[in-house]
Amino acid sequence: MNWFSLFPQSRLRRLIATGTAVLLVLLGAGLTTPGNAAAATPSSADLAYYDVTSPSAPAGSLAADLTRRGYDVLEGPLSNGVPILATEAAAQRLRRQGLTVRYAGPLYQPVAASFQAAADTYYGGYHTAAGHETHNQQVVTAHPDLAVLRTIGQSWRKTQGSGGHDIQALCITKIATGDCAANTSGSKPKFTLMAQMHARELATGELAYKWIDYLVGNYGNVAAVTNLMNTTELWVIPIANPDGVDIVSSNSTRPVSQRKNAHTNGCSGTGLGVDLNRNSSYHWDVNQGTKCSETYPGTAAASEPETKGIQGLLSQIYRDTKPAADFSPATTATTGTFLTLHSYAELNIYPYGWTNSLAPNNTDLKAIATAMSRSNGYDAVHGDGGLNYFAPGATDDWIYGTLGVPGYTIEVGPSASGCSGFFPAYSCMSSFWSLNLPAFMTLANAAARPYPTGS
After folding, report:
1. Torsion angle defined by CA atoms of residues 318, 321, 326 and 327, in that order, rounded to the nearest 10 degrees
2. Is 411 tagged catalytic?
3. Active site residue: 88, 201, 304, 411, which one?
4. Which residue from 114, 215, 315, 377 has the fewest beta carbons nearer than 10 Å?
């Protein structure tokens, strides 16, 4: 088979258009490319990316089995096998069980030994949770006519009196009477962008940071931004899991691979915590993972304070236009859109994510996702859509299934390049931003009338 036939046309066009620029970035930065057979094999204790195949089990069944066994199964296509994050020692154990395990690339990209992190940054420029909080306050101080800062909840550690953070949300708009209130009485439709629910997905929080600056920095200068801010409330939750980000950023050159929050559960290392993207009160599933696994959903639906705070805000600012039944559609009177950022797999995901059955507003939901794909070139999918597994208890399904608001996930970043993985070099942010800014604008502009056909 021709190698390029493995890629959808949208992705192929983007690869051809940007290949030269990406290659120059990789050569200049000294980045190691996952999937490069010439890459050095890691030490037995280092986490790295691997692709796993079985001589007898299909990839989907193998992915489910590895997940049940506690392996960190990752997003992405199954064309090269089931992608996992593991140590070389764990890879050797799988090989002894008769599986083929191919080293696909390192977890970390090079950071110069001389690198000195600026205040509130790490790993070449990514912002810590404290850095985001400082930034949020600076924005509202500098732009009181454009931004309001709200505390919407607390992190798990803060509820325990052991440090932690408030969960913060910015409302950005040209503020008029009634705007940015924590209720549904305002006249403007809402768009919410949420990031870093999974703490190790570094690029997502940084995209939220850039989105905030783009909006407040371009009001009155860029017509599209000015029109959007005059007509729409643009909410941003830049760090949904600040305790987890504290853990990740505790090593400035080799971030900790913490996905979950910091809820003490008797597990060591990154087994600590609850997966907040399996913890919502919509289709919460006790079988998503044992307490030390990466997809552990918690002891009950919405058990975590971060989940309570996020759902609380969204329930306050969005009108409920959908009957409770899963397959009853939201009405054409629905306003608002929602986006949660994750990484990595180059996907625009639309509801539902807990089942492959089509959502009742599928035509309109897919139309918006397709428009986003024209912007960023990512594939538009629903259901298990290439992620290797369903995601019951996810926030994007919760907001659509309970309120009728179209909820989307963008999986930022490729599955194979120097800019792939959870910890891409900070230099990769420029390409992520240029690709995804138009998709953000597309979804924000859809907030006024997301269901034009009602089907």
Report:
1. -140
2. yes
3. 411
4. 114
Task: Flag residues of the chain having pLDDT under 50.
Answer: 1-29, 35-39
pLDDT of residue 12: 41
Q: What pLDDT is attached to residue 6? A: 32
DSSP letter at 1 equals: -
Residue ranges of domains in the chain: 40-107, 121-448
Measured CA to CA, the distance from residue 202 to residue 422 in angstroms comes to: 6
The rounded distance, in Å, linking the Cα atoms of 203 and 341 is 9
* pLDDT value for 19: 40
Residue by residue, DSSP assigns 152-214 as EEE-HHHHTTSS--EEEEEEES---TTTT-SSS--SS-EEEEE--SSTT-HHHHHHHHHHHHH
Fold of 40-107: Alpha-Beta Plaits (3.30.70)
pLDDT averaged over every residue in the chain: 90
Task: Find the helix or strand (DSSP H, E) in which 122 lies.
Answer: strand 121-122
Task: Give the containing element (helix H, strand E) for 12.
Answer: helix 9-29
| Residue 413, pLDDT score | 95
Of 3.90.380.10, 3.40.50.2300, 3.40.630.10, 3.40.50.800, the CATH number of 121-448 is 3.40.630.10
Residue 227's contacts (CB-CB under 8 Å, 6 or more residues apart) are none
What confidence score (pLDDT) does residue 29 get? 43
* Residues whose CB falls within 8 Å of the CB of residue 199, separated by 6 or more in sequence, listed in order: 241, 243, 244, 245, 247, 248, 258, 259, 260, 261
